Structure formats: C-alpha cells, structure tokens
Amino acid sequence: MGRVRRAVARGRAETRCRARSGEAKLHLLADRLHGAKRAAAARGELRFPLPVGYVYDDDGACVMDPDMEVQAAIRDVFAAFAAGGSAYEVVTAFVGRRFPLRAFGGVWAGQLRWGRLTHARVLGVLNNPCYAGSYVFGRYATRRRVDPDGQVHTGIVLRPRDQ
Questions:
Q1: Where would I find the Recombinase domain in this sequence (predicted)?
Q2: Closest Cα partner for 138 from 158, 115, 123?
Q3: What is the pLDDT of residue 79?
Q4: DSSP-derived 3-state class of residue 119
Q5: Neighbours of 73 (CB within 10 A)
Q6: What is the pLDDT of residues 1-57, one digit of tens each?
Q7: Would the pLDDT of 81 be above 90?
C-alpha cells in the first residue's frame, strides 16, 4: 500500500512539473512572438489596421483611400477643426452629413460604412499620428495590478512620447 501512495505522489509531482514547464513554454513562445512584432515595428514593416482615409495598395504601401468622398470627408474634418478650434465645432459642422468608418473583423471586415460623426471619432482622427504621416508603434502599454485580495486589474495607459 505504501508503494502505491508513493507512486501516486510521484505521478502528481511529475504532472505538476510538466504543467509548470508547459506554462514556461507558453511564456517563452509569447515572448518570441512579441519580440518578432517589435522587430517588425522597428523596421516599419508591421501591418496594422489603418484609420479611415487610408488603405494598403497591392504592394503593401499605405496610400490615401481612392474614394474621393472619403478623402473629402477627412479634409473637411481638418478644415473644420482649423476654423473652429475644437472637436465639438467639427461635430457641429458635420450635422446632417455622413462620415466614413472602415470596419475591422466580422461580417463587415474591410468594408467602408457610413455613419454619424461623433466627438469620440473626431478626437480619434485628430489624435491619430497616421494623418500626420508618421509611423507609430507602442503608444499604449498594458498595466496589470493585483489587489491585496488577489484580484487582477488590467488597464491600458498612454506612454510618454519620449519612450
């Protein structure tokens, strides 16, 4: 009977050891994937969803959307901001007009949809560095904190520009 208990205990220890090594392998793979992503971003080759008004051409280069109505809508956002000086003024200028939205994922993946221009979307356009012609990766970082009771909270924070 004692041998059986020792064998069971040894089997459980081996199972725990295998589980831990499996977890370590998963972390190693995740680190390698993130490293490859950072390396592609450093070379400027990381492809990510473009904001409305830009598309990838056949060669993979980022170009303005060939749809003239989309180009006009983006130009009008910046013109309204230059004239009014606030995002709310831009929203007011677009009352009764539609604004393009490029859908990501799902049934509408990659298709252009039209809708109302909201304050949040105006801020998204005005704060997006792509419209200034710059390639940016890593503007946001994920932060995790653990409460004393063990609950994990995850949040996204904007990194300072010097990082």
A1: 51-163
A2: 158
A3: 93
A4: helix
A5: 21
A6: 555 566 555 666 666 666 667 777 887 888 888 888 888 878 877 777 788 888 888
A7: yes
Domain that holds residue 74: 48-136
The verdict on residue 127 lying in a domain is yes
Specify the number of domains making up the chain: 1
pTM: 0.64
Note whether residue 146 is domain-resident.
Answer: no
92 φ, ψ (degrees, to nearest 5): -60, -40
Nearest CA to 90 among 117, 128, 130?
117
Torsion sign across C-alpha atoms 163, 155, 29, 46: negative
Using CA atoms, how far apart are residues 32 and 113, in angstroms rounded to an integer?
36
Q: Between 119-127 and 68-84, two packed helices, what is the crossing angle to 10 degrees?
A: 90
- What is the DSSP track for 60-91? S-EEE-S-HHHHHHHHHHHHHHHHH-SHHHHH
Is 114 part of a structural domain of the chain?
yes
For 28, phi and psi rounded to 5 degrees?
-65, -45
87 within some domain? yes
Which regions of 99-151 does DSSP assign to beta strands (E)?
99-102, 112-115, 140-146
What letter does residue 51 receive in the DSSP assignment? P
Q: Measure Cα distances from 99 to 49, 56, 113, 149 in Å.
A: 18, 20, 8, 46
